[in-house]
Amino acid sequence: MKLQYPFAVLGLLMASLFHYIPFSSIPETIEEPIIQETLTFKDDSYSFKISPDISASEEKVMACPAASNLATPYNSNNGQRGCMFDVAATNEVIIRCFDVNTYAGTTANYEIYYKAGSFIGSENNAGAWTLLGTATGITSAGNNQPTPIPITVDVTIPAGQTYGFYVTNDFGGGTSYTDGVTTTDFLASDGNITVTGGVGKSYPFGLTFVSRLFNGTIFYDPGGIPPCPTARAFVR
Q1: Quick one: which of 196, 206, 218 has its CA closest to 149?
Q2: pLDDT tens per residue, range 187-212
Q3: Please, what is the average pLDDT of the chain?
Q4: Per-residue DSSP letters for 98-123?
Q5: Are 166 and 113 in contact (CB under 8 A)?
Q6: Using omega within 30 degrees of 0 as the cis cutoff, is the peptide bond preceding 204 cis?
Q7: What whole-number distance in Å separates Cα of residue 136 and Cα of residue 111?
Q8: Each residue of 58-97: pLDDT tens digit?
Q9: What's the rounded Cα separation, in Å, for the pair 100 and 141?
Q10: DSSP code of 127?
Q11: 36-58: string of b/e by CB count within 10 Å (b at 16+)?
Q12: Could you give the domains of the chain?
């Protein structure tokens, strides 16, 4: 027997076949391309590749227990070993610890210093600063992400006073910051503290790069609250 309409029959068979394949069983195969961009920090000649998801954070990381925290913008376009900045207290506060924007893809040792009064005028004077502690083997959380620095600060700033802070590392990492307009640029403020300015520094008290704005988070308690017990652990 000769089929008079072979193509019509074939078409009906194909239509019948596709009719019984549910759309949910057809896999999604179209993906967005991964686009990488090279970011170079001119103060340090440090370069690394960033992709669209490098700054995506799935879990909120808290550096240490504290009643309050204040973050400056994480929008770095530059960096060096360290960054100095000021914290002014409207009311008495106790600075507990910091998150910092650090070089993506690095693991390094970090140090935190402080001084009563502004950092301005003491950028190269090591004797004006007190070392609070050192943390070893700190791995960056990524570009423009808060990296907890597990150094207990516990510095009280009296109401109406300004203290300078300096976060730095000895080798192999870096502190990411943002080019500013002046050394005293406003960064962030709430009802208790105001964060301003910054300069970039080569380690430890070497070259100064003016108008470099701190990227980080300040964790603090109101004045009069005693330090947490030694059993306190940094949450990572």
Answers
A1: 218
A2: 999 999 999 999 999 999 999 999 99
A3: 81
A4: EEEEB-TT-EEEEEEEEEEB-STT-T
A5: yes
A6: yes
A7: 9
A8: 344 556 889 999 999 999 999 999 999 999 999 999 999 9
A9: 9
A10: G
A11: eeebebebbebebebeeebeeee
A12: 37-222 (2.60.120)
In one letter, which amino acid is 8? A
Tokens of 5: 């309409």
The number of residues in the chain equals 236
Question: Tokens 């019948």 sit at which residue?
Answer: 16
Contacts of 42 (CB under 8 A, 6+ apart): 78
Nearest CA-CA partner of 117 in 149, 169, 82, 160: 160
Give the whole-angstrom CA distance, residue 124 versus residue 194.
Answer: 24
Structure tokens at 223: 């004045």
pTM over 0.70: yes
Alpha-carbon distance of 176 to 117, in angstroms, equals: 24
